[in-house]
């Protein structure tokens, strides 16, 4: 450990501080060079307190970034709102055209054609319903299998732990025994 001064106090810092910082806080710990009114100076390898001008400039830049982000957010929201409005108008136009066309077609159909169309629609909906039921059944089956896998993993972990405990107990038993490998005297009963 090397000695350094921090706020007037002698401190010890590990030589491999960069590895420790990245393990504990991630790579960003070595990238951020400004923190709580201090700036990291890589030449001096020390945190230096910022002066008033630097703090004022930093505050101004932060405010400008915030304003730019807010403006960008407003523009994005306005663009999305415009897109939604265009999609809504397009959908309404399609619905109106479909309704007008359907009305004309429906008026031209005979009662038999209308009945056949109704039966086809019911068949289509029945097929969709059975597909949804099958999908739900498969989903539940997959969840059941996943739960079984998790249970098996837990059981394997429990058995491994139990096996390790038994190995540890066997080692302890050998330590109690004599040099010929015979078990030692039984522990006294309480």
Keywords:
three-stranded antiparallel sheet, two-stranded antiparallel ribbon, 5 strands
How do you describe this structure in short?
This protein is mainly α. The chain has helices spanning 17-25, 52-108, 111-176; strands at 2-6, 9-13, 34-35, 38-41, 46-49.
Structure in words:
The longest helix is centred in the C-terminal third of the chain and has 66 residues, at 111-176. The strands form two sheets. A three-stranded antiparallel sheet has the order 3-4-5, with no helix packed on it. The protein has helices at 17-25, 52-108, 111-176, and strands spanning 2-6, 9-13, 34-35, 38-41, 46-49. With 190 residues, the protein is mostly helical. It starts with a strand and ends in a 14-residue tail after the last helix. The protein is built from three helices and five strands.
Which helices and strands appear, and what pairs or packs with what?
Blueprint: E1 2-6, E2 9-13, H1 17-25, E3 34-35, E4 38-41, E5 46-49, H2 52-108, H3 111-176
Antiparallel strand pairs: 1-2, 3-4, 4-5
What is the strand arrangement across the widest sheet? 3-4-5
Largest sheet: 3 strands, antiparallel
Bin the helical content.
55-70%
Number of helices: 3
Question: What is the total tally of β strands?
Answer: 5
Overall geometry comes to flat
- Name the helix and strand elements from N-terminus to C-terminus, one letter apiece: EEHEEEHH
């Amino acid at each position: 450990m090397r000695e350094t001064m921090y706020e007037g106090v002698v401190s010890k810092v590990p030589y491999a501080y960069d590895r420790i910082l990245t393990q504990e806080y991630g790579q960003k710990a070595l990238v951020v060079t400004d923190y709580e009114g201090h700036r990291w100076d890589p030449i001096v390898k020390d945190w230096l307190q910022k002066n008033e001008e630097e703090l004022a400039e930093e505050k101004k830049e932060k405010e400008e970034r915030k304003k730019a982000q807010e403006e960008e957010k407003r523009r994005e929201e306005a663009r999305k709102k415009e897109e939604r409005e265009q999609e809504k108008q397009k959908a309404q136009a399609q619905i109106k055209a479909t309704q007008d066309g359907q009305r004309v077609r429906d008026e031209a159909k005979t009662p038999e054609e209308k009945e056949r169309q109704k039966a086809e629609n019911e068949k289509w909906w029945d097929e969709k319903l059975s597909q949804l039921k099958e999908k739900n059944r498969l989903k539940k089956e997959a969840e059941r299998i996943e739960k079984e896998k998790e249970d098996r993993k837990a059981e394997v972990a429990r058995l491994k732990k139990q096996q390790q405990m038994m190995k540890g107990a066997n080692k302890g038993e050998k330590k109690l025994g004599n040099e010929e490998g015979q078990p030692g005297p039984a522990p006294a009963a309480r």
